[in-house]
Specification:
Layout: H1 2-20, E1 26-31, E2 40-41, E3 47-48, H2 50-61, E4 65-70, H3 76-81, E5 87-88, H4 96-99, E6 103-104, E7 113-118, H5 128-131, E8 135-139, H6 143-152, E9 157-161, H7 164-172, E10 178-182, H8 183-189, E11 196-203, E12 212-213, H9 218-233, H10 236-244
Parallel strand pairs: 1-4, 1-5, 8-9, 8-10
Antiparallel strand pairs: 2-3, 5-12, 6-12, 7-10, 7-11
Helix pairs in contact: 2-9, 2-10
Amino acid sequence: MKKLIIAVSCMLAFTVGSLQAKDWKEIRIAVDVPYEPFEFKASDGTLTGFEIDLGNAVCAEIKAKCEWITQAWDGIIPGLLSRKYDAIMSSMSITEERAKKVLFSEGYYNTPSGWFAKKGANLVTSDKASMKGKKVGVQRGTLQDNYVTEKLGDVVEVKRYTTADDLVLDLTGGRLDVVFLDYPVGEQTIITNTDYETVGDTIPVGEGIGVAFRKRDKELANKFNKALKKLKEDGTYDTIMKKYFTYNIKI
């Protein structure tokens, strides 16, 4: 029995030692693309966008080799929990419900959401009566999905999409009356077409965007928090932000 206890103790010590030895020199980061301008593929197929550039700057700051893993939004938290990757840096809004499953970094940006529709649609999105029977597009499982479902779910047909690209295609194809999504995404994918416009005012939704980690990986989260703070202070964050936005999204 004593030998068994000693053997088990040695195994536990080895396991704890292995966990403590994690140096995070290699980090896998999940991203759902396309979600322009935050993450999308350039014409040569390489990943680019605000969060890609910012994530690469974070990795340089903490001296880690980072690999970007493309993952559909629907399975992005399950993929993290099953150790398919170590972090999610993909415009994930910090919510109380998600915080029960993952550990969030400090918020690193926040943008409003906006309504987008074809010019002349004459929609009043704040008026439930005028929205009755309309087909509204949202990206599935997002704060915008929650907002539309809560505010208008009883009078409109909510159509949910896996990607923002599919949502935009159905709007321009006439299969949707209006869509609700992150304003910068609509700005760069919808109203670049002069046949479309924003509807009403932008709407602040949520508490900001954070990097998501497994709850046990507090050390990794601390590394990201310190790096993001440094990048905000030394001007790197601002330089990256101005590459993609004409307004301030920093928090």
